[in-house]
Every structure is written in C-alpha cells, then in structure tokens.
C-alpha cells in the first residue's frame, strides 16, 4: 500500500495530517499500538520539520506486509551539518516557530529514537530527504 501527502511550508494547522491518516491505516492492520506510536511520532516530527524549515515537501509511505518505509523530501534550504542537527536541542528554527511551541531541536533525535532504520541526506540550498523504516 502506498500513501502520499503534500506538506506545505508554514502550515502548522495541517502538520500531523499524514501521521494521523497513517495511524488509522496501521490500526486497521492491527499493528501493535506501541509500534504505531513509534511510527506516528517519527512521521509527525518529520512533517513538522518540513513545515518549519523548508519551502514545502512530500511524504510517501509504503506499507509492505510487516514494515513501513517512509520517505520525506523537501525543497530547500537543506541542512548544513546533519550530525549537528541530530543532536538533541540543536535548532535553526526561527523565533516565530519557537514562539508557537515548535523548534526545540528534538525533531531528528526523536525520529532516530523511534525508527528501526534512518537515513538523512541533504544538499545545502536544494533540500533534504529523510528515509526511515519500522518493522511490525
């Protein structure tokens, strides 16, 4: 099963739409609730990162038998130092984003904690791709 979602830059009201819809499907497939929680946390964090830090992007989820693979791609500005961005508390979020309660620097660390496999690639000025997989 393949699910695709467009994610708009700056639209915090719609952040979480993809994770919510994917959660419903995983519940219908009777996936363990603890595993669903891990998957949904990772997807939500990735969605919010696109909303807060990019010019928009796309999420694609493939559910195959006993796993889910999620790919998120965004358009610019990219991540200068992925290793640094993976550190808890590091954030490049604007003051406006932080004032809304986002941008605490936990997005990528939370994705890493809640996925079985994770790969982040980025090109400065072009964009970022986050891919992860979870087994269930």
Automatic annotation (TrEMBL):
- The Histidine kinase/HSP90-like ATPase domain is annotated at 37-133
What Pfam families does the record tag this protein with?
HATPase_c
Could you name the domain of life of the organism this protein comes from?
Bacteria
> Which InterPro entries does the UniProt entry name for this protein?
HATPase_C_sf, HATPase_dom
The protein depicted here goes by the name Anti-sigma regulatory factor
């Amino acid at each position: 099963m393949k699910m695709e979602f467009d994610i708009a830059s700056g639209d915090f009201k719609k952040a979480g739409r993809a994770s919510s819809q994917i959660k419903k499907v995983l519940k219908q497939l009777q996936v363990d609730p603890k595993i669903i929680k891990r998957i949904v946390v990772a997807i939500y964090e990735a969605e919010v990162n696109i909303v807060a830090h990019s010019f928009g992007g796309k999420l694609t989820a493939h559910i195959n038998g006993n796993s889910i693979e999620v790919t998120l791609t965004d358009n610019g500005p990219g991540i200068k130092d992925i290793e640094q961005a993976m550190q808890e508390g590091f954030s490049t979020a604007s003051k406006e984003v932080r004032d809304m309660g986002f941008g605490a620097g936990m997005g990528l660390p939370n994705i890493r904690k809640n996925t079985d496999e994770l790969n982040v690639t980025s090109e400065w000025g072009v964009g970022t791709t986050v891919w992860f997989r979870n087994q269930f």
